[in-house]
Amino acid sequence: MFVLPPPPRYPTAAAYNAAVGSGQVAPMIETNNILSSPSGPEYQFLVGEGLYVLKEDLHLATPPPHPSEAPVVNPNPLATTPQPATAGSKLTLVTLDVRPLPPAFYKISSRSSGLQQSIQEHPDESQSSTEPRESSSDGGRMNSSDVPLLSPNVPAFGEGNILLAPPTSKDANKRRKPKNNMTKSNSSFISRVILNEGLNKRLQDRPNDGLFAFANINRAFQWLDLSSPTKAEYLTKILFTKAHCLCHDVNWITKSSSHIDIIMGFSTGEIIWWEPISQRYTRLNKNGAINGTPVSEIRWIPGSEHLFMAAHMDGSLVVYDKEKEDAIFSAEEEAAAGGGVPQQTNGESVNDGSTTGSNSNHSCRMQVNKSVHSKNQKTNPVAVWKLSNQRINAFAFSPDHRHLAVVSEDGSLRMIDYLKEEFLDLFYSYYGGLICVCWSPDGKYVLTGGQDDLISIWCPSESALIARCQGHHSWVTSVAFDPWRCDDKNYRFGSVGEDRRICLWDFSVGMLHRPKAASVHHHQRGSSVSSRLASMQRADSGESADKEKILPHPVEPRSRTAMLPPVLSKTIDEDPLCWIDFTQDAILTSCKSGHIRTWSRPSDVSPQGGEDGDSR
Amino acid sequence: MAGFFNKLKGAGNGISKVDSNASLKNKKEEPVQELTPLEKLLQNAGPVREDGSDKFFGLENFGNTCYCNSIIQALYYSEPFREHVVKYPFLPAPDSLDGQQKKVHVTIRPPIQPNGTATVPGKGQKPTTSAQALKQRQVVNGQVVTGGQPMRPEDKPDSPEYKKKQSMIRGPVLELAQENPDAYGMEECTFTGLKDIFTALIESNTRTGVLSPQRFLDIFKRDNELFRNSMHQDAHEFYGLVLNDVIANVEANAKRIQEKDESTSNGHVTQATKITLGASGGITSQAVSGRTPGTGWVHDIFEGVLVSETRCLTCETASQRDETFLDLSIDLEEHSSVTSCLQNFSAEEMLCERNKFHCDHCGGLQEAEKRMKIKKLPKVLALHLKRFKYTEDYSRLQKLFHRVVYPYHLRMFNTTDDAVDPDRMYELYAVVIHIGSNAYHGHYVAVIKTKDRGWLLFDDEMVEPVDKHFVRNFFGDRPGQACAYVLFYQEVEFDAVREEMDAEGPEEVRLANLKADTSLVSEQVNGSATVPLSKLNTQPLQPVEEDHDPMPSLSHAQTAPGDIASTVPLPMSPTLPDHSETHPMVAAPPPAPAVITNVDEAATIPPKSKDEKSRDKKEQKAQEKARKAAEKEQAQLAEKQRLDKQTKIREAQKSEQEQLQKALQESRRIAAEEEKQRKREMGDTPSGVSEGGEKSFGFLNRASRGSKSMTRKSFAFLNKVGDKGDKAANGDKGSDKSDKSEKGESSSVSAADGPGSSSHPPQQQQNGGGSHSPTTQISQETPEKHDKPLKERFSFGLGRKKSTKFRS
User: Fold this and answer.
1) Reported ipTM exceeds the 0.85 cut
2) What's CA A397's distance to the chain center, in Å?
3) What one GO molecular function would you report for this record (chain B) (predicted)?
């Protein structure tokens, strides 16, 4: 008769169950990562090109709370105490090797002039690929910040501001390291650093093209070698006292076998620049000197060795220089008023609901609180842009290194020309906040996923919504293109969500089924904006567009929007998933409780044969 | 219990509204009382508004009436509903009625003295029922009564109980002991009760306080047999019944006026009627024909229309049928979203095997496909998450703790092609939350978005501002067993949403800062030289001792963990042995989760900052070894505590279970008695319609009334569900009005439903069995009411359970 109540749920249900199963309490002691390779029908999925099979499941150990942070289990479920920000495990993958490009890039770079209409192509852009950065191409990771499409005509961020010029580097191979030694740190921020005993030997012995992974879990941050058979043994584990690392990124310009630049954004708003090989680090935005809100996304500015961008939860994007000191920041008035930035404060007045007067940001504006062209560049921040007051959930740089797509909790997708610090376009989700964003490898399309359970495909050059993708049963937490299965017409992308599902999608513009009315080309506003966008790109001054106020695009009704079904939808984990990415050999996913799963691509299909599998 | 309240009532009646001012003055004279968060929020608020949108009153709990309180609050903050309820019987004659209408018989209960005794009623500290509720709440919260001299939860600052008590002390406590239906020209009914509450709140000259909805509950219980006990009830069911009651009441009134007019003025419709009919009729532009005028507004706000399309797989004939709904009950899936659950709701369903469909065209039971889409979207969309599921293993309702995420905004994917405004945007404005491990007990609270004061938590007497992110704490995956149960979405313009998001920016920034701060604060906490384990911050420290001054009578206050903290704010270790001595039952040291309550930010920050310096010192000294040892120790300690706690919880739950059993038996006994008595009275109940067995019972009566008020179709559907169940159980003896109305529908329609309602034999057997012996009815009826494994998604399939229950 007496029925036990369901067990209290812990953030790591699996760990809890394991503990309860063995008659113990929830894990309070440090545990190790566990590598397993379960098999069975639930650990594989079939798509047109073949069968993806779970190669292995690397379960990152959730660290116990810091001794000073005895778990406060508040029995009152209605307690109104604010919860600190946290995030599920996400990975940054990096390989030190120069690998061949995925096929999609080959196609694009070998084409002569087929992409004039797409936004990333400057009319007089040449296709020469002699620039040195080509060497930084990646094999492992397809995030937008490191795509080799970079044309030499694209200026670097902050170019023209002499003050931003990097300190003359004496030797390219001798990179500057951060100041502090992590292992000997007595910072209250870092609790403990554990190095693999054979770290140096392992670093020497590993294949150069092997994949490194950096992963956050709870208050821990791990450096893993995914090419090692003993990958469960981390190379380095950092335990922070309380702060959770929410996001991290590796600089693809500076990476080498002796140097890797990693930046991490924390729930406390602080940022750490870490160089894992020398185990040195620097803290930025210390104690929130520049911005006191958590960092939800952080990325190196493509092509820059020093500058990176962090999205803070108060809706600002802040550019930092890894080597500059913090300085208390207050908005620079002249920056907001002058430069190439339109005078925004006099624009449309915010309705009386807002209390902050000139500081308030209407969502249709971008307030440049400090321009990259500011004369004051001795200290951080390098630039500060306030997009709105709503939390920014993610952003992505376009492959051509010109544009920035930013998604927020208010459901907005903002397109920004970050080189010119100009706000270009504003779209909204069907409903609910947007959680993730990525660019197609060719820069033609932007994907967003969010709380409407949808993935939306946007075309920035046409300023239009192309399709909505329905297949998830809950919020979509991560999207990524599979560049090995993309060509100039067909795109493959994958997504994961809170529903623990992976969805794979095949998308080609011609095949889209548009209900009733074609929304794209008949969209008046879209065309006007696109012309504006194009004019902005061409015009050197960009004055023509300055006075124009950015109007948000109305939400497209369902009846006019193409709906794309997934080619695959399958539950692949026990916990909500939070990250997906593609490598040449596999799809990688990770979940909230730290399971990193590697799904091998179909073995019988050559990884280069991107086209044959698309027919389905 | 009633006697007690009568006492209170009697005491309260003598005091007029003037007293509210007096009590207000009292409040000002007592500097002891700090401003509550709500009062802080309301500081500098302008003049009191006319529409009542800035009244934030708690509702008194009479023991297990939180289901009522949370729903009333959610209804009150639905602007269109509140306006219509207040306006409804539009009485044009100002000379006689205007003055009267303004006057709700509100009495202000004398404030309870801080030491816990009410001034007039003497010994009554808190109604016993409330004490019971507290106890229950305690168990729900995982708190354990520690025997000996337990600290009462309401004495612990920051506990909900304490806050509730404070709310009562602060007052003013508005009592609605009497209805004034005459002023509305209506009979006393659920609607007038609700109207009185709304009016009393709107007319109150204070913004905050507590309202005692006793009379409303009395009336509601009078009309609704099922709720005539002090048991835990289903909030969603209550919601449905209240809306149905309101519809029925309003409709009856309209009809009565019409008849009166027809008889008195010889066919000339008087001005009053015209307005009564017109005022509401005008709004219902899309009113379905056949609806009695005057009730349009309720339908207009809450009612949507579903199309159920059934396609026979044999002859490919598709038949459509419209059904109205006042809310949608959606099945839950683990790790899904409300969006997805709604899609499943409209997913195609095969009618096969026992569920076959009776096709008109080919004649006979055939396999068919059925799907339901929404044709008309309601203004207020109430989504009932079916968290209570009947499980055969336990033969009881299990609560599903599935993680179901809900967005702040919503659009419906499952609309028909011809739906008006299929992309209508909704915003979440209220969440009714169930806290507890199963359907039979627990607690309901509501989190509601108010017009311009953000989100507020309504927990019976207590009203507390919460931030927007708080709303997301009830997806179902967090400890504490609190899950969203009913979601209220209201239609909203997209531009308004955007504007609001811009406007709430500063608040968002503040929250973002807060999120960082919580981590920052602890970042500096890294152990200290003086306090080896620095568990300090886990201790519920007391903010001010003054808080205890008003309660000098508490003799046990000295030993209570909370008070130790306030008097001995620093090291914990010395107090440890002391503590276990005085409290033999308390095996766990103070920081045990069991005794930690709502750790208030304000309360914890000062000691933390105090410790920062010393911690920094410690930081330098701290060696890895020491830390490891500490970690281990901590782990062992925590394990011990946890085990202790677990056993305690188990014990507590066992005893609670026993209590529940007792209560169940008791209520069964009472029910049986009542049943007998009712049978005796049945003959001379004037309201009873002369119809077979169910005459004196609310639902079918109301349903037959309702079949006029709602569209005939809609109610036909409801009745049908009930009738089918009846037929199965009672050998098809029920052929009442509603049944006839059902037969008026196309027969394919009834067949479509037939299988649905008869597809669950075990359930019917139960009903059948239950109908024989009244004593078993209550226990069996409850599981049945939530048990909808068949795709019966209508929340208003209440007909079945009621009719089966009381037909004997």
Assistant:
1) no
2) 9
3) cysteine-type deubiquitinase activity
